[in-house]
Amino acid sequence: MKRYEFTPSGVDQWQLDLYHSSVQDQAYEQMLIGKSLHQWVQQRFLLTPDQISYLYLLESQFVVLLQDALIDAINYQLPIRLQKDERRVAQAGSSDSVKVIAISKNTQQSTSIHVPDGSKVLPQPGSTQVEGSLLVHIYYKDS
Length: 143
Hints:
Elements: E1 4-5, H1 8-19, H2 23-35, H3 37-44, E2 45-46, H4 49-55, H5 60-75, E3 80-84, E4 97-114, E5 122-142
Parallel strand pairs: 1-2, 3-5
Antiparallel strand pairs: 4-5
Helix pairs in contact: 2-3, 2-5
């Protein structure tokens, strides 16, 4: 399994490779994410020991939300972006800041319809489109 840097450009490269892969490879990636986000992140990205430790501190409800958001984004080939704000050196030992991970899922679904004369409105086969993006933002917040 190819591993990528855990940086915005590393996530972009992973996504580019994934979206250019077969449907079976994309489904396999979704299965790995759904099975264990913790293991998938470690197998897919190069993490520091501190990042691995932090990964296991995430609340289980948040992990499920992130899994679902990633799986949906892959399913519709939506852009997935990582935004990381590096901790300032002056704050390195400070206990006054908290590391935060936020996800922002912005999607919109549309369906084309066909109305034959005198008939009910019927959706066109294969006409549903989903647009949007998924942003995973990691930053530090002063407490």
